[in-house]
Amino acid sequence: MPTKKLFGLELKRPTIQSSEYPAIARKNSSTTAAVTELQRPSMEHFKRPSIAGLGKKHASQDKHDKQSKERSQSKHKDAPRTTPGRMKPVKLGMIMESPPILFLGGPQEATGAIISGRLQVSPSAGDVVMNSIVMYLECTTTTTRPVEARCRECMSNVTDLFEWNFFTKPKTFRATEGTQELPFSHLIPGHLPAVTHGQIGTIDYSLHVRAKSSDGQETELRRELIIQRALRPGNDKNSVRIFPPTNLSLHVTLPSVIHPIGEFPITCRMTGVTNKRDDTQTRWRLRKLTWRIEEKETMVSPACAKHAGKVGGEGKGVQHTHEREIGLDELKAGWKTDFSDGQIEGEFMAAINSAAKPQCGVDAPNGLKISHILVIELVIAEEWAPNKKPNQATPTGAARVLRTQFTLHVTERAGMGISWDDEMPPAYEDVPASPPHYQNEHTTIRDYSGEDIQGDMEQLSLEN
């Protein structure tokens, strides 16, 4: 270690030995091990089980598991498929020709959406022979509360929904031909859940391309696929709530669907406010109205085969629930009170806070469910007044809090609400049958020489 001189004296920094300070040595070694573990996570047991109700069955399950494991590992930067510094044989690109995917209607009635595009393949340097180019439509489900916190298999599940094999035998891509395009299309079924990014669970879709050359090099491309669902708006919903032991009734009118962005009107009318006697009357006055929109999310975290013993066996999971407020407001005015008719009515605007990143309602077969409710709280105070002078009211000191809730359907905007199958021209098999053939497959023309045709032509008319 280099030394320094100060006023002619040699100064040297003392060295701390592990034997003298064992606690410091142990602390430094544990910190280093933790950093190494974060930088180099284990991927040996990474496996991707399928989601129930989605995907297709492969002929060879072992081969499918091996391919799924390789494609899953390729999503992480710590598992490269090619040697660093070596140029990939081809460059992949993708052009989508179809509009954004939007399912119209619920899972039971939606007809799905068609995707179409072109896969672009460009040789990097010279001619290249490609053994295979395969593209997968993948659905990835992730939970933030897995059964085992450090297990990737418990945290994320990937399912192959469809597979494109662009050619079955090796094909040569010549550099002189430039970029070549491979078209693809598919009808995505309408029962699939939409893309959802909840607080404890997410659902994503992607197009995953794998190209393998004759010398064993692989090139991959991933493109995110956004799938949304929109419910067509219908008639407004009218609901009535009764609050015993009082005679109060609340009539609320809500729209059938609401959207994450934008306001929606709520109409309220309360009846039974006034209770008249011979000389006096008691009535309820509305002091404050509070509304809030709550989002409830439920997610079932499945356990992998390695950690199935924690939940009681394979095929089981742990259910988690998360609730939060995505809209809130308090009103102290804005309604009309008519004690003579005994009712209070008013209309106000409610909206979801877009900064909270709200999610649309979803009910997926993998256990992810998101629902929304509207909670209305009314604070009323009792008053006493004589019938001859109803304006001279005296508070009695009694007050109540009326609370009720309504189900909301949060969905994307449907636009014109026309599905793809309604816009298509009729197919060949949809054309109705032609008129029957004439006798002997030919027609004849005969001259008509009746006397009635020789008369006045202007008097001829068609009669039913």
From TrEMBL:
Superkingdom assignment: Eukaryota
Gene source species: Friedmanniomyces simplex
Start and end residues of each LDB19 N-terminal domain: 140-310
Region (Disordered), start-end ranges: 17-87
Name recorded for this polypeptide: LDB19 N-terminal domain-containing protein
Ranges annotated as biased composition (Basic and acidic residues): 59-80
One Pfam family this sequence matches: LDB19
